[in-house]
Amino acid sequence: MTLIPPSAFTEFDAFTAALDGRIPALFLDYDGTLAAIAPRPELAVMPDEARAVVQRLAALCPVAFVSGRDLDDLMSMVAVDGLVYAGSHGFDLRGPDLRRQVGVEYVPDLDAAERLLRDRLGGIAGALVERKRFAIAIHTRQVAPPDKPQVGEAVRVVAEAQPRLRMTGGKELFELRPNLPWDKGRAVVTLLETLGLEGNGTLPIYLGDDETDEDAFRALAGRGIGIRVMESPAETAAIWSLQDPAEATAFLGRLADWLAEG
Ligand SMILES: [Mg+2]
């Protein structure tokens, strides 16, 4: 449905009623969810206030970050010890007692695609090719609007030359990743199993703002709660919403207070 689901912040009491006594297991996207989108990925810094809230929550319930960013990049941006981190859309998982990588055999395909992309996009001002271990992001936020279709066309040509990869999109970016049945949703389900969070006493809650997060909302349908961070109506499988990263941080703060009160 295309709409804005009810706000988990302004309708916080109804939200906590839906927890029904279960302990949340929090899965958090980073960009656009806790860190405001910025012109370049390295400028999308999570405010200290959000970091403090995440630290408080981590003492109260399981917390994992699930991002399209490269794992090392994600861990250095969040910089909270002891959490579970899933980078490259969940292809790269790491936690205190966890290490798992999906699609290692696709790295040579990504290497070849990266070379082709750098060749083809070198002449387009503002086109940023960002290599992650298990994906390549092509950012268009700083490309002049008339040049943007050219970037999309170049990425499509490279995707066609690399049949073991598939092309996806997001906010102002294209992405190439292994053509495997794997996404943020599968990563979250795997993490629930691996971390022993499948029981009835736990309620998975996923916060995300973008198309790739919809895979997680769908994967959790019927067994968890999706919260989409969104300012305008969009097609979503999430059942709750939050307006922006500032409201998401305020919501998580309230959730921490509520959990601390027991
Ligand atoms: Mg995001």
UniProtKB/TrEMBL annotation:
Q: What EC numbers are recorded for this enzyme?
A: 3.1.3.12
Query: Cross-referenced SUPFAM superfamilies, in alphabetical order?
Result: HAD-like
Which InterPro entries does the record match to this protein?
Answer: HAD-like_sf, HAD-SF_hydro_IIB, HAD_sf, OTSB-like, Trehalose_PPase
Q: Which reaction does it catalyse?
A: alpha,alpha-trehalose 6-phosphate + H2O = alpha,alpha-trehalose + phosphate
What cofactor requirement does the entry state? Answer: Mg(2+)
Protein's pathway: Glycan biosynthesis; trehalose biosynthesis
Which CDD domains does the protein's record reference?
HAD_TPP
Single biological process term from Gene Ontology: trehalose biosynthetic process
Q: Does the keyword Ribosomal protein apply?
A: no
Highest taxon, organism lineage: Bacteria
A molecular function (GO) held by this record is:
metal ion binding
Q: Does the keyword Hydrolase apply?
A: yes
Q: Which UniProt keywords apply?
A: Hydrolase, Magnesium, Metal-binding
Enzyme class comes to: hydrolase
Q: Which Pfam families match?
A: Trehalose_PPase
Q: Which family does it belong to?
A: Belongs to the trehalose phosphatase family.
User: What the protein does?
Assistant: Removes the phosphate from trehalose 6-phosphate to produce free trehalose.
Protein name according to UniProt: Trehalose 6-phosphate phosphatase
State the organism named in the record: Azospirillum oryzae
Q: Which gene encodes it?
A: otsB
